[in-house]
Amino acid sequence: MVRVEPFKAIRPAEKLADQVACLPYDVLNSNEARELAKDNPYSYFHIDKAEIDLPEDLSPYDEKVYQKAADNLADFLTKEWLQKDQQDYFYLYQLTMNGRSQTGIVAATAIDDYTSGKIKKHEFTRHEKEIDRMNHIRATDANTSPIFLSYRQKADIQGLLKDWQANHTPIYDFTSFHDVDHKVWQIDDPATIEKLKNDFKEVEALYIADGHHRTESAVKIGLEKRAQGKNSPESERFLSIIFPDDELAILEYNRVLKVAPPENFWSTIEQYFTVTKNGVKKPVQAGDISYYDGQDWYTLTIKTELVADDPVESLDVAYLQAHVFQEIFDIQDIRTDKRIDFVGGIRGTDELEKLVDAGEFQLAFSMYPTAMSDLLAVADAGKIMPPKSTWFEPKLLSGLFLHDLETK
Hints:
It comes from Enterococcus alishanensis. This protein is α+β, with helices and mostly antiparallel strands. It has 2 domains: 4-249 and 394-404, no CATH class; 251-390, Conserved hypothetical protein from pyrococcus furiosus pfu- 392566-001, domain 2, CATH 3.30.1760.10. 32% of the residues lie in helices and 25% in strands. It has helices spanning 17-20, 30-37, 45-48, 63-78, 111-115, 127-140, 155-167, 190-200, 212-227, 265-272, 316-326, 348-357, 372-380; strands at 4-5, 9-12, 82-84, 90-97, 100-110, 119-120, 142-143, 147-151, 172-176, 180-187, 206-210, 237-244, 250-251, 253-257, 273-277, 288-292, 297-302, 340-344, 363-366, 391-392, 402-404. Helix 4 (63-78) runs parallel beside helix 6 and helix 6 packs across helix 9 (212-227). The longest helix has 16 residues, at 63-78.
């Protein structure tokens, strides 16, 4: 069983939701955030990336940035641009992109469910990124960004959520980045709240889809407050948005290399792949990888008889890492090696061609998306996916929900 709880959300005044909500802090840099927020005092970037309100030469990890975030949050609350609900509620958050919708329940989840393995991960985290969010949480005393979780869908939960949507009016309804439609419903009926809590007790596990660093940071702050005797009921929980697995779409996470192929490139490739020069830019099935060298597109088809029967090693990204990046280019750690970079699938294969044709990179690899079932299998096995294996779209906007830890 897992525990999901209603909470008193800090959220935008209804007329300001579309002006407050912004992209997640970790999908754009400080200059991009500064540009997007420059004519919008309501933008949540003033809280989530508070360096935009400070001198540009100041490090985004300076203590002044976290204090500015806390000050801006207090200011938003004073001006009632953000308001805290007076009762505990669940919320439904629906995102619709290109005609496809996904609806998640916004809730507080238990840090003990994470430490006991009931909330499962599939990625490693980087210490410096954890420190950044931990400092942000300490300063604001809030979970300021939601964690994107999933679960194996259950018909009774889905039926309840769809019924609520059909019979209630959204509190937010707007279109934002990349023409994504965003709708939010507040679940304020005590009987429905209790049923949802009980229904989730029948869910065996939750899975982190996106937000591993936010999860680790939220949990570590909660445990820190507990150890210091400064905890509250709210600091024992963290902000999550939980979607059924069958509604989620994973896009490909493509790779580009800043290194020329060696003389043994093709001879090594042909040991592990069947090669077809066919101009196909985007793989049409798992096991195919499209490769661009600045002149032609090739399909590299993985020799299935060489793939291990393992949830990680059988992934296309893992096979490419082992037999191309490591074996041919000696790229052992793709998280730190400066010769490799990653391009989210939403930017398309045109972006890959652009980067190679401009000479910024020499080679590009277009991937077939990792399946949601693969992510669940890896997490269930207690294993870790290669970095940059999944790209979820649409992105959950920040600023629609904050969770007050209530320890100050």
